[in-house]
Specification:
By secondary structure, the protein is an alpha/beta fold. It has a single domain (19-228), classed as Rossmann fold, CATH 3.40.50. The chain is 33% helix and 17% strand. It contains ten helices and six strands. The protein has helices at 2-5, 34-38, 54-61, 66-69, 81-90, 117-123, 140-143, 148-165, 177-187, 225-228, and strands spanning 23-29, 74-77, 98-100, 170-175, 203-210, 213-222. A six-stranded mixed β-sheet has the order 3-2-4-1-5-6. A hairpin with a 2-residue loop joins strand 5 (203-210) and strand 6. The longest helix has 18 residues, at 148-165. The protein is globular, with a radius of gyration of 17 Å.
């Protein structure tokens, strides 16, 4: 839980969302992994194939200026290796601590974690969306993965809690494509992540939360001068 790591900033009822000001979130999807290159779906897979490629590690070094230019006060990450490596490289020249939170993990695809997407398309095509290459929420019925509603609740709870605990701050969140899509669709009161294209590796999404209201500033942009403005 966030308040255990930042106790000096926590106050109030843990079950109640009481933001004291606008929190700005910059969500970044992890860098490209070996598994991404080879066409595996990862989910909660966390082995050598989920490590970042050498090229991706080099690309992420360009993001080190992000901490200063976006005036980031807090950094949170998924504990999975691909997100953790990304956040560690970004913060290499910063004194900011990196806070790991299990709620930022990618959704688990159960028995399909680490499977080739091409094989799943051949054998389970009805559970895969053609436009996004995402698994449909109904896929957990056959792969014993994490139920969509469970994943959605944990993701939303993270952002609500951070907005309450660190209001009026700029927060960097290093996480996964499905996590980003799920929170964005919650912000627009949708329950279908298939409405959104997958965010690219190392893309940024910016949104704000204030008094229970959300605003999406941009989605799935590459980090450049335009993003900073």
């Amino acid at each position: 839980m966030v308040e255990r790591i930042l106790p000096q900033l926590f106050s109030g009822n843990n079950d109640k969302w009481e933001c004291r000001g606008m929190t700005t979130f910059f969500l970044i999807r992890h860098g490209e992994t070996i598994a991404n290159q080879l066409g595996y779906i990862q989910g909660t897979m966390d082995n050598k194939l989920s490590s970042l490629t050498l090229q991706s590690k080099q690309q992420i070094k360009d993001y080190q200026r992000l901490i200063r230019e976006l005036k980031i006060s807090y950094v949170f990450t998924s504990p999975l290796i691909r997100a953790r490596q990304t956040s560690e490289i970004i913060c290499q020249k910063s004194s900011l601590p990196i806070v790991s939170d299990d709620r930022l993990k990618e959704v688990s695809y159960g028995e399909w974690n680490g499977k080739l997407l091409s094989d799943l398309k051949k054998n389970y095509s009805s559970y895969i969306d053609d436009a996004t290459n995402d698994l449909k929420p109904s896929a957990n019925r056959v792969n014993n993965g994490e139920p969509y509603n469970h994943a959605r609740k944990r993701i939303i709870s993270f952002f609500k809690e951070v907005a309450r605990v660190v209001p009026q701050e700029n927060v960097l969140v290093v996480t996964h494509g499905w996590v980003i899509k799920t929170f964005v669709e919650a912000c627009v009161d949708s329950k279908n992540t298939l409405n959104f294209n997958n965010p690219s590796n190392l893309s940024l999404t910016k949104l704000t939360l204030e008094q229970g209201k959300s605003h999406i500033c941009f989605y799935n942009r590459q980090y450049d001068v335009e993003v900073i403005e």
